[in-house]
Design goal:
The chain is α+β, with helices and mostly antiparallel strands and 170 residues long. The chain has one domain (3-169): Gcn5-related N-acetyltransferase (GNAT) (Aminopeptidase), CATH 3.40.630. The chain has four helices and eight strands, in the order βααβββαβαβββ. It has helices at 13-25, 37-44, 108-122, 137-146, and strands spanning 3-7, 55-62, 65-73, 91-99, 127-132, 149-150, 156-158, 161-169. Strands 1, 2, 3, 4, 5, 6, 7 and 8 form an eight-stranded mixed β-sheet that branches. Strand 2 (55-62) and strand 3 form a beta hairpin. The radius of gyration is 15 Å and the shape is globular. The protein starts with a strand and ends with a strand. The model has no long low-confidence stretch (mean pLDDT 95).
Length: 170
């Protein structure tokens, strides 16, 4: 069965929010919902991101089941992170990539990442910016295989958690 990527519908936002909370709360070494309740509220209400003009929520489905999602940001002013990322011009980004446990190893994360990269290229942007943490080593390795390179100038700390920046020239 193949996996498809499309823009999420508002009716999917609650399901995607639950998926995000489940995925991130199960990352080894990542802060728990008790440690960072605001962060998990943001994940649970993931559809709120789409209220910003340049933001899209992309969803991966296998048949009719949601197996992954990511937030695509077409203008870095809407990225909403710490550090200098929001000041970057002529760049897009993506955040909060999540893949359900049962869909791991099917290439869902790569499909979602590539969909974001294609959107940025179609818009004529020159660069893609992302962030990850030590807890997300599987994703980190995938990003490097795609061609992202560490960019220490984008690093920041969020509530004591080191967050690492990456860039990809388009």
């Amino acid at each position: 069965m193949s996996v498809t990527v499309s823009q999420a519908q508002p009716k999917d936002h609650t399901t995607i929010g639950k998926l995000m909370v489940e995925v991130y709360s199960n990352l080894k070494g990542f802060p728990s919902p008790k440690e960072q309740p605001k962060y998990y509220d943001t994940l649970g209400n993931i559809g709120e991101f789409t209220k910003k003009e340049s933001v899209e929520l992309l969803v991966a489905k296998k048949e009719d089941e949601i197996v992954g999602a990511v937030v695509y940001i077409g203008d870095m002013k809407d990225y909403g992170s710490g550090g200098i990322a929001t000041q970057q011009k002529d760049a897009a980004g993506f955040r909060l990539l999540a893949v359900s446990q049962k869909a791991r190893g099917l290439g869902v994360g790569r499909l979602l990442s590539m969909a974001c990269i294609e959107k940025a290229k179609e818009s004529g942007l020159k660069e893609m910016i992302i962030h990850t943490t030590e807890s997300m080593k599987v994703a980190w390795d995938m990003y490097e295989r795609i061609g992202f390179q560490r960019s220490e100038d984008l690093d920041f700390e969020q509530s004591g958690l080191p967050v690492f920046g990456f860039r990809l020239g388009l």
